[in-house]
Design a protein that fits this description.
The protein has 336 residues and is α+β, with helices and mostly antiparallel strands. 29% of the residues lie in helices and 24% in strands. It contains nine helices and 13 strands. It has a four-stranded mixed beta sheet with strand order 8-9-13-12. The chain has a three-stranded mixed beta sheet with strand order 1-7-6. A two-stranded antiparallel ribbon has the order 2-5. A hairpin with a 2-residue loop joins strand 8 and strand 9. The longest helix is centred in the N-terminal third of the chain and has 18 residues. The protein starts with 5 loop residues before the first helix and ends with a helix. The protein binds zinc ion. Zinc ion binds next to loops.
Length: 336
């Protein structure tokens, strides 16, 4: 990513008054308008876009002030912004992607440089605090990884989560005392690790949100905090697959259990249970253990557990076993 010198682009000195910036912008925009440059439309379009971008920043006192204090520290801010972008991507948010595409335009249609400092990408509501007015903090959203057992048991769980919040040093403005905020390097946002005691509703489904009231972004000027929403993500379980409120498990059984029937031990979330396999059961047949699934979050009750019987053929047969199998085969085929 390259530093954009907006003053150079508009051809004005750093201390230019607002009206000069405006008139220079108008002049240049007319000059480089693509319609006015049919001979070199591509170059004109590039120029025109740069001019618009420069004016978007320098023509806005708030943005101009921020831009002025970035100075030579802008690369630190870029790093910070990149870290936050990765975080947002990890949270599944659609994030703008500066850098990776070699200067492709970001969410605003302006350059990546612009997006990094001036666009509110990934924010649920504007982070720009109105000075002097109490403002409610942002609602934040992040994922929480839960095991099947966490969800089965429900109840309290202490988790450490990385959340993104307004920088406490600058209050989200990115500047402090006329210079770049030393803590967030101008982005106005900070990632922080925080511990929470989360009450997990029994049977909560994947993708559902758990709300932690008042645990979101900090309020500004005495405003209340926002809420924190945790989106449930189920970690893979080595034994069970969950579908809705039902559980699915594969159980390896001997071919004799399938052919002759028998009782087998089946793991469930409440411990082993005995299950009867009827004689003459086909391989891969699924049996149901009623009420052995997940608790139902909405209406109470419990789902079922489905057990797929995976028959295992005996290997490394002894001579005697081979002989007996041959006899069985002959019997099956109606030979004496
Ligand atoms: Zn800050």
């Amino acid at each position: 990513m390259n530093y954009k010198n907006y003053y150079d682009i508009l051809g004005v000195p750093k201390n230019a008054p607002e009206k000069d910036i405006k008139s220079s912008y108008r002049k240049l925009a007319r000059k480089w308008h693509p319609d006015a440059n049919p001979d070199n439309p591509r170059q004109a379009e590039e120029k025109f876009k740069d001019i618009q971008e420069a004016y978007e920043v320098l023509g806005d006192p708030e943005k101009r002030r921020k831009y002025d204090v970035l100075g030579s520290n802008w690369q630190q801010a870029a790093q910070q912004a990149e870290q936050q972008r990765r975080y947002r991507t990890a949270q599944g948010e659609t994030a703008f992607d500066f850098g990776d595409l070699g200067g492709a335009d970001g969410a605003s249609g302006f350059s990546d440089f612009f997006d990094m400092f001036f666009s509110g990408v990934g924010r649920r509501q504007s982070a720009g605090p109105t000075r002097g007015f109490a403002q409610r903090g942002q609602d934040l959203e992040t994922t929480i990884d839960l095991t099947l057992r966490d969800i089965f048991n429900g109840g309290k769980k202490a988790v450490s989560l990385q959340i993104e919040d307004v920088c406490p040093t600058c209050g989200g403005t990115g500047t402090r005392g006329g210079s770049l905020c030393p803590q967030c390097h101008g982005t106005g946002r900070l990632l922080k690790n925080k511990r929470f005691d989360v009450t997990i509703p029994r049977g909560v489904r994947e993708g559902q949100r758990i709300r932690l009231a008042g645990q979101g972004g900090s309020g500004v000027s005495g405003g209340p905090n926002g809420d924190l929403y945790l989106i449930v993500r189920l970690t893979d379980d080595p034994t069970y697959k969950r579908r809705g409120d039902d559980l699915f498990v594969d159980l390896t059984v001997s071919v004799y259990d399938l052919v002759l029937g028998g009782d087998v031990n089946v793991p469930t979330l409440t411990g082993q249970v005995r299950m009867t396999i009827p004689p003459g059961t086909q391989n891969n047949r699924t049996l149901r253990l009623s009420g052995k699934g997940m608790p139902k979050a909405r209406n109470g009750g419990t789902g079922d557990q489905y057990v797929r019987l995976v028959g295992q053929l005996p290997q490394n047969l002894t001579e005697k076993e081979k002989k007996l199998y041959k006899e069985l085969a002959a019997l099956r085929n109606g030979k004496p």
